Amino acid sequence: MTANEVRLCGLLLREHFGEVVEKVGTHLLKNGPETLRTIIHETGMPLDQVKKSLCVLMQQGACTFCSGRKGPGSPAEYCANGDRILRILRYPRYIYTAKTLYGDTGELIIEELLQRGHLTMSETVKTVADRLTQNMEEGRSMDYSEVSSSFSKLVETHFLQRCPPVGVEKKASSSDNPAPPVTNPESAESFPDCYKVPHVTLIGRGKRPLVTEDGEEQRNAKKRKLDAQAHGDEGIYWQVNFERFHLHFRDQTIISAVANKLDQTSSEIVRTMLRMSEVTTAPLAPSTKPLSANEIFRSLPSSYSIQRQILDQYLSLLVDDPMEFVGKAGESGGGMFVVNLHRALANLARATLESVVQERFGSRSARIFRLLLRTRHLEQKQVEDFAMIPAKEAKEMLYTLVSENLVQLQEVPKTPDYAPSRTFYLYTVNQLPTARMLLQNCYKSVGNLIERRLFETKESKRLLEKSQRIEAILASLQASGAEPEQLTEVEEMITAAEKQQLSALRLHVNKLDSAENQVDETIFLLESYIFSTSLTA
What is the mean pLDDT of residues 11-39? Predict the structure, then answer.
């Protein structure tokens, strides 16, 4: 991993799990697989802290372990998963998507699994049902069957998947120094029951227990009794399927781009094609399965009452569009249409690069950059003529873009001596390396935003703690039916100046959070483009 990625991973670990986990995680990212003894020696941390940190990382799927490089019987080695740590940045987007698709229940299920790493279905259902019951009116409770239904829907659509089973490696045949068994988890792709929901037995929710003098003991006894019951899914753990969320994000990005470039009807046609191909198209396929115009027409939502002739015109418009979101299947074309997934990502990444150049260096520099993207190699005189920019300005802009590594200069000598008078100097733009460079800049920007937010909250830590204490007191007073005068008296414990400072802090933190989410959208697009390019190369 690059320095920017390691720094961002460290900031995410510190914010969510504390400085101890951050130290162990960043050490593994920088040094690669290491044994427990080596980690303790090189970090200088106590044994129990290192063990707890490794447990937290493994619970979140951010760390794996395998048998040592010296062969069977050697100590297990631990390796941090940087890509999994970076997914923490996208947690709010996962949760919001689940809320949009499956309501509050789906939102809480995804939130609970992201927070805990992996859980059994019965534990998840009970926890989510309890949380929903707390937010409902007095006397009402959330039925387990409703939460189980939402959980099953998330599994059916592959947003949730089983954790792959863990195989145990045989012990080394050494009687003097026997080594503990080392586990090697299987991949989810090779696990046939990845999306098989077990039959879970959960007792329906009854009335909430009355609180008496020994109410705490009654609740603890009831909890122990419920925990002791077998639900039928012991040892079957579930986790969030990030790749399925990423496919959904990719499809939504393409649909939004079509809506912005053309119109809402065109985007609905593309949405229909993606929805029809969702099951039949492989996750890494360059395009969707071919669909006929008749199939698309029959699958369009009833609210879009367009005629078949109009649909043909829209399909022709999408095929002829320079962004190439939709294409015809096969060499001869025919009447079958596909959504060009990889080509759409490449064009969206190119548009992102162009917008970055325009924001940083102005519209004329963006015109030069766009020209070089489309024509590949041009001399300085050709750039001046084609872009219609004066020679002096074009020269300055080209040199600025070259210094920022956005444009490359290629020398083509006429003779072996590389004499300047007998050498062509061609300017070009390599989209893939430029996208990789911009991706690293995005990682650095998100790291700066997180550091700034942590600094802001640390500076106002005492004020935030005071505000939280007062809010807790107010909540308890309201629950006990306190008089309005008492509530007012507690509220006045925060002065007007402190309220103003809190309001300014929250506004600033919200802006930083919003900026993080916007940069993450760019990160996702560039990561998807780079990954798809590596598959088609």
Answer: 91
CA distance 75 to 253: 46
- Cβ burial, residue 29 (10 Å; 0-12/13-18/19+): buried
pLDDT at 1 over 90: no
The predicted-structure confidence for 100-121, as pLDDT tens digits, reads as follows 999 989 999 999 999 998 888 8
90-168+186-204+233-240 matches 350-429 in fold: yes
Confidence of residue 87 (pLDDT cuts 50, 70, 90): very high
The answer to whether the beta carbons of residues 70 and 78 sit under 8 Å apart is no
Q: Which residue matches tokens 């504390």?
A: 18
CATH architecture of the domain 3-80 equals Orthogonal Bundle (1.10)
Q: How far apart are CA 446 and CA 474, in angstroms?
A: 36
pLDDT digits (tens, 9 = 90+) for 191-211: 677 888 877 777 655 433 333
Each residue of 487-525: b (16+ CB within 10 Å) or e?
Answer: eeebeeebeeeeeeebeebeeeeeebeebbeebbebbbb
In whole angstroms, what is the distance from residue 446 CA to residue 517 CA?
9
CA distance 268 to 140: 40
Distances from the Cα of 535 to the Cα of 147, 189, 330, 399, 433, angstroms: 39, 18, 20, 33, 16
- State whether residue 314 is helix, strand or coil: helix
- At the top level of CATH, the class of 250-339 is mainly alpha
What CATH topology corresponds to 350-429?
Arc Repressor Mutant, subunit A (1.10.10)
526: left (phi over 0), alpha (psi -120 to 50) or beta: alpha
Quote the DSSP letter at residue 308: H
Provide mean pLDDT across the span 165-179: 41
Please identify which residue in the block is written with the tokens 């309201």.
Answer: 478
Q: Residue 160 above 70 pLDDT?
A: yes
Residue spans per domain, the chain: 3-80, 90-168+186-204+233-240, 250-339, 350-429, 435-536
CATH number listed for the domain at residues 90-168+186-204+233-240: 1.10.10.10
Other CB atoms within 10 Å distance of the CB of residue 459? 11
- Mutual orientation of helices 363-375 and 380-387 as an angle, nearest 10°? 120
Residue-wise DSSP of 358-418: HHHH-HHHHHHHHHHHHH--B-HHHHHHHHT--HHHHHHHHHHHHHTTSSEEEEEESSTT-
pLDDT in the model for residue 182: 34
Is the model more confident about 74 or about 150?
150
